[in-house]
Amino acid sequence: MSSPIESKSMTHTIRLADGADLRVFEQGAGTPLLLISGLGGAAAYWAPCLPALAAQHRVIRLDQRGIGASTRGTAFCSIDQLADDCIAVMDQLAVQSAIIVGHSTGGCITQAIALRSPQHAKACVLTGTWAKPNRYMQELFKLRKALLRSDPVAYAVSATFFSHDPSWLNANWNAFEAARAAAPLSKAAQDIVAERIDAIMAFDRSSEVAKITAPVLNIGARDDLIVPAFLQEEIATLMPASTLHLLNDGGHFFPTTRCTLFTDAILRWLDQTF
Predict the structure, then answer these.
(1) 8 A C-beta contact, residue 23 and residue 63
(2) Which of 1, 64, 105, 228 reaches 20 to 30 Å from 218, CA-CA?
(3) Counting Cβ atoms within 10 Å, is residue 146 exposed (0-12), middle (13-18) or buried (19+)?
(4) Are 23 and 3 in contact (CB under 8 A)?
(5) What pLDDT score was predicted for residue 52?
């Protein structure tokens, strides 16, 4: 027998103006909540969070252009373009406004949505993200991009060590094996990752984020090695009206490794905000 969430699940394919077809997934019912994943760009990233979030909301996820079941299209890949893709998804689904949760690269996309089309952002949850370029990430992603081209398997598996809390990864070694199996071996797959790295390295909204009018929850983890917590503290300085919530640990993928703490923080903040 299917669960209530499964019975309300739907899958869509949305065609964009440049020819990209985006695969979009919906679960649950209630106030729309759009989940935007990070550099990997896959809707599946959010699977552990669905039971808690879709029990109270209409949760919308997507494979971003060129990722998973979505095709690349011809548009130049930038954070603004990825934001426009999400806006197009909301419009096609007749979602006038949504709570937008963006992790890492998805947090950059969330900022861009809230600035480019404020009416679409009922609230913003920025998780493990940043507002402007910094030396730490520039050098880290220069290294990762070189590894992507020279040894794509090492690129994929090294990300599991960078991204996960060690104790969680040791107990969930399937995450390592899955990353190795999904390594971007072809030049086309590497090009998709490389252009996304270029997009995030060019991202800078530090002079604009204070203009975001929607309520903002800013979540990080103190042991994040990819987007360190000092960058969430920087966002809090740039957005003094936002709420900062730092987890003690969990690594960069804390929405997975600390799923209950993560979803509880979001739902509690939403209850207090609305």
Answers:
(1) yes
(2) 64
(3) exposed
(4) no
(5) 98
pLDDT in tens, 148-194: 999 999 999 999 999 999 999 999 999 999 999 999 999 999 999 99
Say if residue 5's pLDDT is above 70. no
Q: Is the pLDDT of residue 43 over 80?
A: yes
Contact 155, 183 (CB under 8 A): yes
Distances (CA, A) of 83 to 79, 126, 153: 6, 14, 29
pLDDT at 6: 55
Report, at the CATH architecture level, how domain 4-133+203-273 is classified.
3-Layer(aba) Sandwich (3.40)
List the chain domain ranges: 4-133+203-273
For residue 84, give the DSSP letter: H
Whether the Cβ atoms of residue 58 and residue 26 lie closer than 8 Å to each other = yes
Amino acid at 92: Q
